Every structure is written in structure tokens, then in C-alpha cells.
Amino acid sequence: MPKPSSEPRNAALVEWLVREARELPSMAAVIGGFARHLAQDGLSFQRLFVSTRTLHPQLAAVGYVWRHGDQDAREAPRPHGILESALYLGSPIKIVFDSGQEVRRRLEAPESTEEFPILAEMRAEGATDYVAMPIRLSQGRMNVLTLATDRQGGFAEAELALVRDALPYLALVLEIKETRRMAATLLETYLGRDAGRRVLGGLVKRGDVVSLAAALWYCDLRNFTALSERMERGELIGALNDYFACMAGAVHAHGGEVLKFIGDAMLAIFPIADDLDRDRACLAAFAAAEDALAAFDEMNTRRRADGLETLELGLALHAGSVTYGNIGAPDRLDFTVIGPAVNMVTRLESLCRKLGRRLLASARFASPCGSKLIPLGRHALRGIAEPQEIFGLPKD
Fold first, then answer.
1. Quick check: 100 and 141 in contact, CB under 8 A?
2. E strands of the chain, at which residues?
3. CB within 8 A of 129, min separation 6: which ones?
4. 320 is in which domain, residue-wise?
5. What are phi and psi of 360, to 5 degrees?
6. Predicted model pTM
7. Which of 128, 160, 190 is the last residue of a domain?
8. Confidence band of 7 (pLDDT split at 50, 70, 90)
9. Is 142:136 a contact under the CB 8 Å cutoff?
């Protein structure tokens, strides 16, 4: 990253970036504040846009748009695939990302908009001048800032020089914000929302664990080994992703936390705050299970219509206390849950096939569910000393 000028021409803006901007709560607030400071300092522009690349399972980039009258910038997520789209391939932003060079186009003549479709949109909004500038980050990475003005004659060169002087300082703040956001996103993606927050908050040492009461969920595909031998790799991965989307989507929608995917199995928890909260957590987990099974049935209907093999599963629900935290080797940890309750829910799921049931629950879990779950008798579970009373759906 180039060294900022020792005497920036816009000292007040630079001081704000260094002292205040990094304390703002979001990228949108930083970019909105930056735009407002430029406007207050006399820069005449109608629109400011910042494009940032990111690491996210669903997004390739995030754009931030600010217009006069806005407080913060408006966030515009860009999904994966945007970098192959006509919108991006025919944009000045691509040139800046590829070359690191500034792009400027005056828009007062109609033919000036023919090169890039976005410029026709800008001109239709009254823009007379457009500039895209690189925001250089560390390790060769780059974001892009664009400005458009409707002032007759466009930008003065001195105005653009003020913006260029401030960009290295803006880059520092954006990198701090984006790095923390990417860390939080990746931790949430690979560990789960609550576990990710705990790790980012400092729960990182081996043996850092807490005791937690929770409703537990464990589901597993049946006959997965045989399926994996019959299916091509692409079809198998697609089937797994569709299945997990049904399960995890329902868990998240009802406030649960997916802790891990284990091959074709999924372990999730619905934390219980105290003794008075147990019924709520169990009912939330049960509602999630109902939604997941409905989504699973819809998925199988689509697969059948497409001539694909349908899937079968077992799902178990239990409630109890677990140990939750960092377990593993000194340099390779897993943030997970262990304890008798975890053993119980996995053993319970293994009973699904024997009983010909898709969903089974323990007596401790079933007690707040009333008639939604019916008794199926007492059954022996591998590794559990006493036979357990088991419950299932009235129709399954």
C-alpha cells in the first residue's frame, strides 16, 4: 500500500478517518460518514459507490451506495457469479480491479456513455462526470470507489486530488472493518453463530468449555454408503446439500444452532437459558423438526419428478446438559458438545430404522409437546444402561 502523503490536503477528513471512523459500527456507516465529510468540505457530487470484495459463502462482493440526503450508505450484496455477469464485465469497476488504474469519463455528450452501460444510467440521472478510483489494501488487494457529479463542467481536478489524498486512510479503516467482518462470517459459517461469537470473543484455549442445557437434534441419512456408491460425485454432493439445506434452514429459522456436519449427519442444539426455558426450547426444536420433515418431503417430490433417487432419514430429539467448548489437540481444536445427552440423542437416532420411524424423541424432550408426540414403549439403546421410554409422531 502506498504511503499516505505526509501533509494531506484534506486534514480534517483524514483526522476523522484516523480518530473516529474506525469506531463506527459498520462499513455502511464509515462510507456514509466519508461521503458526508466530502460533501461538507465542498465536493459537488450526487452519488458515491464503494465496491468491496469479500470472503463469504453466499457473496462475492458487497457494494455501498450513498446519495445526498443519506446518513449511512446503503448496502448492496453481490452474490457469487456477479464477476461473470454482463453487469460487471461491462463496468469501469472491472478495469480498476484488473489494472489498478483510475477510470474517468465525462458524460455531457451522449456518445460518452456507449463504452459502459452504467454510464448511460448515470447520464440519465443527470450526471456530467464519472470517476472510478482504486482503494489499495494490503497484499495487493483492492476495493474501488466511484463518484458521479451533475455539476456543469464536471469535477475540478483539485477536488479529485483531495479524494485521492484521503483514500489511503479510508483503505486502512475499510480493511480493519472488512477483516473483522470476514472473521466473524467465517467463524459463523464453519462453527455456527453462537460458537463463532464465543471464539471471536476470546474463548479459544483448549479446555475452555462451559456447561450448557439444551434441546439436542441429531439427524442422519439412511443407506448413505450405498447411495454414495451408486451416485456420481456431483449428484451426491447436490443431494447432500439439498438435504442439509432442509435440516439447517429449519433449525436456524427456529433459533437453533447447527454445531457440525458429520458426513451425512447433523448435530444441532437449541440452548436452554434456565429451568423455566426448557419447554420453549423443546417446542422450538420440535417445530423446526416438523418444518424440516416437510421441506425434506418437498425435496423428495422434486427429486422424484426429476427422475432422481429419493432419500430417507432418521431424526432424534432429546434435552439435557452438555459440555460446550474447545476440545482437541493443542494446535487443532473443535468447538463442539460432549456428554451423556449427546450419546443419548445419537443412540436414539439409530433406533429410527428399527422402529420404522423418521422422528423419535426421549421422554424428557417429549413432556412439553403434549399430544404432538405419542409413546412408543420402552426400548434398549446401545450404551445406555436402562431401557428408555421413546416417543414419536402420531403419523410417521
1. no
2. 47-53, 59-67, 74-79, 103-106, 129-136, 142-149, 209-221, 257-262, 265-272, 313-329, 332-338, 359-362, 374-379, 388-392
3. 104, 105, 106, 107, 148, 149, 151, 153, 154, 155
4. 193-392
5. -130, 150
6. 0.80
7. 190
8. low
9. yes
